[in-house]
Design a protein that fits this description.
By secondary structure, this protein is of the alpha+beta class. The protein has helices at about 20-25, 30-40, 65-85, 120-130, 200-220, and strands spanning about 45, 55, 60-65, 90-95, 100, 110-115, 140, 145-150, 165, 170-175. It has a 5-stranded antiparallel sheet with strand order 7-3-6-4-10. Strands 1-2-8 form a 3-stranded antiparallel sheet. α3 packs across α5 (about 200-220) and α4 (about 120-130) crosses α5 (about 200-220). It contains 5 helices and 10 strands. Helices cover about 30% and strands about 15% of the residues.
Length: about 230
Amino acid sequence: MAGPVPPPTHPLLPLPRRPLARESREGRGGGDDVRGWYENELGWPTVPGHPVRLLTGERYDVLDVPAAAGHAALRRLTTATAVMNAPAGFPVSLHGHTASPHGHTADGVRMRLLVAAGAAEELPGILRWLEWGALPLDLTAIGAGGFMEAPPPPAFRRPARAGPLQGAAVWVRPPVAGCEVESSLPTMSALGPPGGAPDLVRLVNTLATECHRVRLRRACDQPLAFS
């Protein structure tokens, strides 16, 4: 009669690992899908390589401010445009260590607001004309030859219960596929911005005001040197 089965002399082999889904490999959806959405659905040029980056200076420029200042400026502009029954839906994104489209941001997060191409060159002159030029506002622009990280398209956005994305870019106001972005962007047009977008000068003045307030609050939060 056969005896008991001896224990195996080697450890059990683990089951083969399943390949990671494309969303896991790319982090927030397939990189090719993200690039295709921007290039094919919006007609926006991208920079070769990964992560996907958007080329600025052709279809739009970008204003870059601290997220706290950007959120405050958008609230002011939204209130003003609501009174005038005009939309204020130009694309806006967040970039930084902890970015969430639902307004929960941490220090170091930046807000980027899309404006008409050529606005980056106009920014220094606008700030001087508005008498903001001598102050360190932390308000900069990205124009021709620049780029920014591409936030995932709305279809790839994670649900709110998933929490903020670490070190990611997200849309606060995503662009709309099939629509010309230029019609929604703040511009210096003498006839006024098309489509009810805020005037570039008013947008810059509002952002500069809120950037200055953020700078003053941070200065007040700093402990005194002799304390």
